[in-house]
Specification:
Layout (H helix, E strand, L loop, with lengths): L19 H4 L4 H28 L6 H8 L1 H34 L2 H16 L2 H12 L4 H8 L13 H25 L3 H9 L4 H12 L1 H16 L3 H6 L7 H11 L3 H26 L1 H9 L1
Amino acid sequence: MAHGPSTMPAHGLPAAGRAPSLRRWDGLGYVLPAFLLLAFFFVLPVVALLLRSVLEPTPGLENFAKLLTTPTYAQVFLNTFTVAGVVTLASLLAGFPVAWLLAVLPGRWAAFLFGVILLSMWTNLLARTYAWMVLLQRTGVINRALMDVGLIDAPLPLIRNLAGVTIGMTYIMLPFVILPLHATLRAIDPAVLQAASLCGANRWQAFRRVLLPLSLPGVAAGSLMVFVMSLGYFVTPALLGGASTMMLAELIAQLVQSLLDWGMGGAAAFVLLVVTLALYALQVRFLGSGRMTAGGAG
C-alpha cells in the first residue's frame, strides 16, 4: 500500500500539534545573542555596582543613607534636577517652533534646515562645549556685542554658573526635542486646524485646544529624552558650570576617580538609574506605549 509524503517534521511532532509552550520559544534563538549582549554589558555591571554600593566599606545601606541625608549631596541632587528641568523647559520652548517650521516649510527648505540640525548633532560634543566657553566668557562675543549696542554696561556672568550650563545644554539637547516633535506634527492632518478655524477658533485657541493636545506624544517623548539625558550629563556641566552647580554625574566621577569611594559612587549611580526608570514608567503609565510609538514614528 502506497503512502504519501510524511508530514512529520524533523523533531517528530506535527507542526499543528505542537504544544503552545513549545511554539512560544520558536524564535528564542534569534534574540538570544541580543539578550546575552545586554546581560553582559548592562545587567551584570549594574548588579556589580549595586553590590558594591551595599557592601563597601561595610555591608548595609549606609551609603544610601549618607547620600540622601548629607546637605552637600542633597545640594548636588537639587542642582541636577533643577538643571534638567530648566533645560527641558527651555528646549521645549525653543524646539516647538522649529519643529512646526520644519513641518510646514516646503520640501527643499525643510531638508536644508533638517540638515543643519543633524550637522549640529554630528559635531563633536567637546568642540561645541568649548565654543560656548569662548562665546559666554566675560570678554566673549556675546558680552561684547551686548556692550557695543548699549544693552549692558558691564559683562554679564554667563559662565561657571547655572546660566552657562543651561545655555550650553539647551543648545545640545534641542535636536532631541525637535526630532520627535517634528514626526508628531507632520502626522497631524492640516484639515483639523482648518476645521478649527472654520468653527471660529483664533490662532491661540487652535494651538491650545487642537495642535498642542495632538502633539503631546512628541512633547512627552522629547521631554523624557532631554530630561533623562540631562540628569546624567557630564562634559557640558563640568566645563560651563562651577563648584556651586555640580551635578550628579560629576559627583559620581569625583567619588570613583578621585576619592576611590566605589560604595558611594555606586549608590549615587543606582539612585540615578532608579529615577530614570521611574520617569520612563510614569510616561508609559500616563501616555501609553502605543501613543508614544505613534508620536515617535510619525
